[in-house]
């Protein structure tokens, strides 16, 4: 694969991983022995399980999160930041490491994902600077004008009513 662009190589790797997942899902014995959250069945079809999805997403999004964190902290190094639909805390940890005077609050709707983000933030030693909140993006549980900056990286596609979320972010 020498000479191919990095993104293309990553795409090939992901395609191979998905092929493996489908193969494991198709074989009941493998699915029960190897699955453990890697592969789940949904309406009779093999789906990437929560654990495998988290592994793949972390690997694929790492570079994106670093670039976003660099852009945010280049012009914003102190104050209060809210990340809506923050996911597992990768972006927040990158931001926290780059801007120690910036207080970051993450907002995530999934209790399971909140636990993962809290564990990642605490493992990075950033628990005093980074806080995790559970809430819905279309009903942000903070008073108006609570934050100096609100960001959302990679969550728009999950919102049922993006206009409502953007209205919440604006207030």
Keyphrases for this structure?
171 residues, alpha/beta, four-stranded parallel sheet, two-stranded antiparallel sheet, 6 strands
Task: Find the structural class using helix and strand composition.
Answer: alpha/beta
Could you state the order of secondary-structure elements as H and E?
HHEEHEHEHEEH
Radius of gyration from the alpha-carbon trace, in angstroms: 18 Å
Strand segment tally: 6
Number of helices: 6
- Spatially, the strands of the biggest sheet line up as 5-4-3-6
Strand content: 15-25%
Q: End-to-end distance, in Å?
A: 49 Å
Description:
The chain is an alpha/beta fold and 171 residues long. Helices cover 50% and strands 18% of the residues. The protein has six helices and six strands, in the order H-H-E-E-H-E-H-E-H-E-E-H. The strands form two sheets. It has a four-stranded parallel β-sheet with strand order 5-4-3-6, with helices on one face. Helix 5 links the parallel strand 4 (101-108) and strand 5. Helix 3 runs parallel beside helix 4 (90-98). The model is unreliable at 24-39 (pLDDT under 50).
Offer a concise description of the structure.
50% of the residues lie in helices and 18% in strands. It is an alpha/beta fold. The radius of gyration is 18 Å and the shape is globular.
């Amino acid at each position: 694969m020498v000479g191919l662009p990095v993104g293309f190589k990553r795409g090939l790797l992901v395609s191979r991983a998905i092929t493996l997942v489908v193969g494991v899902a198709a074989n009941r014995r493998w699915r029960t022995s190897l699955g453990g959250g890697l592969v789940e069945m949904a309406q009779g079809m093999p789906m990437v399980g929560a654990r495998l999805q988290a592994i793949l997403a972390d690997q694929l999004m790492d570079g994106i999160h670093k670039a976003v964190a660099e852009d945010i902290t280049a012009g914003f190094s102190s104050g209060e930041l809210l990340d809506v639909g923050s996911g597992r805390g990768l972006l927040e940890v990158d931001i926290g490491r780059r801007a120690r005077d910036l207080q970051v609050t993450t907002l995530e709707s999934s209790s399971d994902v909140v636990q993962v983000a809290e564990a990642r933030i605490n493992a990075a030693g950033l628990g005093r600077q980074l806080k995790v909140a559970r809430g819905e993006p279309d009903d942000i549980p903070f008073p108006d004008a609570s934050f100096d900056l609100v960001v959302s990286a990679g969550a728009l596609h999950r919102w049922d009513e993006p206009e409502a979320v953007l209205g919440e972010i604006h207030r």
